[in-house]
Amino acid sequence: MLLQDRYLTRTLRIRYAHGPGSAIMICVRGRGYLVTARHVVEGIQAGENIEFRVDDVWMPIPIRQAKLSELDDIAILISDNVNEQGLDEALISGLLTVGQPVAYCGFPLGLEGVAPAGHRWPIPLVKAATYSGSILQNGRMVHLFDTLNNKGFSGGPIFAQDPAGMVKLAAIVSGYHFDRHLDVMRRAEGGVFEPVPDFAVQPNSGFMKAVPIPRALELVAEIENGE
Prior knowledge:
Elements (H helix, E strand, L loop, with lengths): L4 H4 L2 E6 L2 E10 L2 E6 L12 E6 L2 E6 L2 E4 L6 E4 L8 E2 L12 E6 L18 E13 L2 E7 L10 E5 L5 E12 L3 E6 L5 E9 L2 E9 L1 H11 L3
Parallel strand pairs: 2-8
Antiparallel strand pairs: 1-2, 1-4, 2-3, 3-7, 4-5, 6-7, 9-10, 9-12, 10-11, 11-16, 12-13, 13-16, 14-15
């Protein structure tokens, strides 16, 4: 799948108190919104700033309104710096088919793609995945993708082609689906290995969790309705 500039240049590297993450600008009914994972901006309030990577520095952006989902790992931010230049709602769709290849964007491990001439913010890196299916967690649908996700992709967009071949925003990266924990081992007397109390490792299972993009559109509707 080829991602054109209109997808890449609307994907941003952002930072809040919990560390850096990714986000995408969208435009719904002529109004601009920033969509990211809730855990990236957990606790943010209207009037606070997030930071946006531009011109190789972190620039503060004031947030006029924040809508964080209570049930899903997704959030909507409104800022005067995010306008109708976001990804048009015609390019937003939650349609996915099991086994379908997708592409997701973001800024993993502190890495930034080289921006084209005249573009002030970095271009995201892109990885491929396969839509494996969906599960229920706490009664909410969560998409699973077969891929090795990395820290920094959280909040980034996942794109898929619709039946007509048009690339559309389908979901937002949430994070790893962890495998069963592994005990941390140490060598005891006699050369026998034993687990270290209170220490364990949670391996990356190779599944990435994501929130269906219709959840973001529901938050937008709540904002429009004054909820």
